[in-house]
Design brief:
- The structure holds two protein chains of two kinds.
- Chain A is of the alpha/beta class.
- In chain A, 66% of the residues lie in helices and 10% in strands.
- In chain A, strands 2-1-3-4 form a four-stranded mixed beta sheet, sandwiched between helices.
- The chains are: A alpha/beta, B alpha/beta.
Chain lengths: 363, 390
Amino acid sequence: MFRLVKREMCLIFGDSGAMLLLIFAMLIYATIYSIAYGAEVVECVPIAVVNEDNTSTSRTFVNGLRAGANTEVAYEVQSVAEGRELFYNRDVYAIVVIPDGFERALYGAEGATISLILDGSHLLLYRAVLEQAMAELLADAGGGAVSLSSEVLYNRSLGYGSFVMPSIVVLLVQQTLLIGVGMVAIRRRKHSALIGCRTWFYGIWQVLSITLTHIVIYAVSLTIVLVVLWPAFGFPFEGRIWDIALLMLLYIVATSALAQTVSYLFKRREAPILTLLWSSVPILLLAGVSYPKEVFPAWLYDVGRLFPSSSAVEGFISLNTMGASLQNIKSEIAALVFLAFLYTFIAIILENLGCNSKNSASG
Amino acid sequence: MLINSIISSLKRELREIISDKLYIAILLLLPTLMILFFGIIFYRGAIEGVPIAVVDRDFTPLSRQMLGMINATSGVDIAFEEMSIYDAEERMLNGEVMGIVYVDQGFEDSIYRGESAEVGCYLNGANISASGVASRDIQLAVQSFSAGIELQRLQSMGVDNAQAMVEIMPINIQSNIISNPYLNYGYYLAPIFMILGIVVFTVLSTIYAVGRELRYRTAQSWLSVANNSLAGGVVGKLLPTTMSMTLMSQIIYLVLFVVMGMECEGSYIVLTLVTILFIIVYQTVALSIISVTSNLRLALSLGGGYSVMAFTFSGITFPTMAMYGVAQAFSKLFPLSYFSEFFVGYVMRDAPLRYDVDNLLYMTLFLVVVPLSWRRLQTVVSEDKYWGRE
């Protein structure tokens, strides 16, 4: 088996394309995505204010928006048309209009109104501005009969990077394996076609040794990601290290076996990347985290469970971000064990069928 | 004649496509599958029925009424009633709920005594999109429950209805949402996700079209068919990809504007013309990648990475304006960043085209890679030392 692992390593390290995918892609992509999402929260969204009232009360409200973390009053303009000009030019992402007579209405009997012109085409920007305006408004309204005290657990600052990076890292493992293993497998098969296959046991050893090779490679990459990248960008790491290691071990085994199974579909080395690259985003969505599973049909979510990444994303977020225990993710663990057995079994059958057909063809 | 070279090269390319299943897959089959997938997953658009747990330690008519109002919202679904906050948190750790609402003993009593009663809400920050919806709907339900109580209290004191409403809510917010007024998740994400698919397949198929001639040592035959005109050969070769991806973009717009019911605020013709320009821009970038690397597989890896990464930096998931400075600068390296700005501005926000002239200019600037890499392309297609690389 050691010999087979060594041969697999040689195949990977002897091929710049495979090395790029199986070894460097994980680290390069994880770093680039961390840089993109590292800022975490949407702050200081520039807004324009049209203060038609211009009284001390309206100025207090504007000062509240100015002092808030979410918004920055970038422009005070005279008319909505001017504000709209800035909005179309992307100088501001919302316009707040305080109408003439605001103060009078507030202290009179009719109640005052503030108009917000918001941008629905970016929900994070929309939410940031609306939350700030609501906070100012509630501060003015005083306490009602029932007050709601909200607390965010786990990713307390609601950071976008902390939310999405665990899913991305898990998915990177699967997609780089699916594409990289396909490339290496075609070269390996050409090589083994020359030496021929021996027994059924050879097929089993073959599949298991490839899996072992991937465990070694990804143990190193994931350790670098979690030990270097995670603290560098301040992403949460609440989990127990051995729990995470076990989850990842099962995940790599299931994914490696899936990749080996899928690799039998390909006859040319460029085929894996041409046909599988596009699937990264759909598979990420199917995990039901970065895009909530409540939005799409349940059957589609169930289909997504066939990919090890779906269970691993949920499991990893629970362990890593929420500090859950293995007990909490037992259904994900069970799913990964099932998929690991299923795909390993199929990969072994295919390996032997491939060998036998080659043997009979050469015989 | 250049036109003859183009036609000869185009005919040869169409024959190649018909005889290569992989080529057909990336030009027609997989893009169609991708559009179908995104169409299904984004169709509903609104996040509904996010599961939450409640702990009602008061268990009085008023607490039940408030929880009933929370359950009646579209975004939230009370999936579990637990005896203690610990049990509810366990549900959250198990991934079964995204939020917990906690009503302590004495809730109803506090209200009857005219004191402010407190309701606790705990949200799962590990999933910000689902918990964001839960937070919004729980907040709205509690606010309207609270307003109802206040209204009754004021009415019992003889205050008339209108005056009571002013006392409860002294300032009203009137929201006017430009583009995507129903805050539909599908409208917000679907266009750029689908366009990303176009980018990926445009880049891959362009690299494949040229790269396979090098990989399988057929560059000479390709050029001779095109009467040794590289320009004619390249245009004829890349035309099927341009046409196929233009067709795919039309299907995408059909799905967005007809099936999903999104509004196209700008001119459809302008949108289509810009989309064709966008496809050609990505083709020229892909052409340069294969010219510089002269290795099909390496070019596919680099081109594939470049095309997928564009999505992150387009600012659709996380706004570019909120990214680190270095990430904002990096985002300028992808034509998709300019196209998505144009799409949001012109098609969704109804901004006049003049506000996006700069974006269109920057996008067009990418065409400069063609003269920069043309010489290299001439070399790699004519010298056999660049052929046959695996």
